[in-house]
Amino acid sequence: MRRILLVFLLAAGVMYVILHCNIWRTNSYWLLPTDSDRKEQLFLCSLKSNISTFIRLDKFYPFLCATNFLQLSKLHGSHNLELPYGIRRAERYFQMALSRLDNCGLFTQDDGPSCKKCVVVGNGGVLRNKSLGKTIDSYDVVIRMNNGPVLGYEGDVGRRTTFRLFYPESVFSDVIHYDPNTTAVLVVFKPHDLKWLWDLLSGQRVIKTYAFWKKPATQMIYKPDQIRILNPAITRRTAYELLHLPTKFSKKERPKHPTTGLIAITFAFHICSEVHLAGFKYNLVDRNSTLHYYGNDTMSLMTQNAYHDIAAEQRFLKELVDHKIVINLTEE
Questions:
Q1: CA nearest neighbour of 128 among 296, 293, 332
Q2: Which domains are assigned to the chain?
Q3: Residues 97, 229: contact at Cβ < 8 Å?
């Protein structure tokens, strides 16, 4: 009887260890099965920085993977929310798009030190004639967003791009902007964004262009192994925890969402030990001031945008600078 009991206890112990390890692998969702030690070290670097004294950080992998995005979405609470901050009712579209991607990794082994010093480069007109190009290129990681060009503006904005966040209406479509060293990160706002990506990577035409607020790109200049899909929980954290945007809006109100720039900053907080900014200063008083470092758009275009709360974002950025959480290279 004692032998039977001993065997039973040993078997129970083995089962516990196996179950515990499986749960640990699932819940440690910052880590990927490959290069896990490097990811853990990167996370610890973030915790040691002053970022964690201002913003709650936890083990949080920024990109979705085809093999476990449903599990991770449940852990993050994204499975109960519809887009743009969750995956509910869009699971099939996420699966379709992710099935066309070759990679969901963050950094490769040859990407330099694991504790990254990052700069997030906005598209603000304040970058003009600042000659920050060499300074920007000196960072371990350079994060850009949308269709802010590098070509022709290298002196002010640099040449390197590590990550570029985009959505279908804002991604480059001209191959002259292609950079083989860039990881292009799709920020998903609606199911059509995922269908758009799947169509382009499947060699199909994008037919339902009416589903976008302006015509999306009709070709993808990046290769499948360069593309990632941002975890919607990053966008949700930007909206609710950092900007404190309302969770509900009346029928007469248009919902407010974070800009790609603020989402990029939140993304940086989760992968970097130190975050600097450039190009995030806007003149909200002068409607005729330059909006971007490229083109001729003015601030009047931004002030008319009911989709974002630019004033709230500028207040938040000022708070980050005042608390020395970030350094603004273009602060005037």
A1: 293
A2: 43-107+116-328 (3.90.1480.20)
A3: yes
- Give CA separation, 45 vs 113, 183, 210, in Å: 11, 22, 44
Structure tokens at 199: 């169509």
pLDDT tens-digit profile of 239-255?
998 999 988 877 777 78
Residue 163: pLDDT above 90?
yes
The DSSP result for 47-116, as a single string, is HHSGGGGTS---S---B--TTTHHHHHHHHTGGGSBTTS--BT-HHHHHHHHHT-S---S--TTS--SS-
CA distances from 283 to 13, 78, 327 (A): 64, 35, 19
Report how far residue 302's alpha carbon sits from residue 305's, in angstroms, rounded to the nearest whole number: 5
In this predicted structure, the answer to whether residue 7 has a pLDDT above a threshold of 50 is: no
Helical residues (DSSP H) of the chain, grouped into ranges: 2-27, 36-48, 69-76, 91-99, 133-137, 154-157, 191-201, 232-236, 260-271, 299-303, 310-322
> Residues 6 or more apart from 138 whose CB is under 8 A from it?
none
What distances in angstroms separate CA 118 from CA 121, 140, 233, 264, one per listed residue?
10, 6, 21, 11
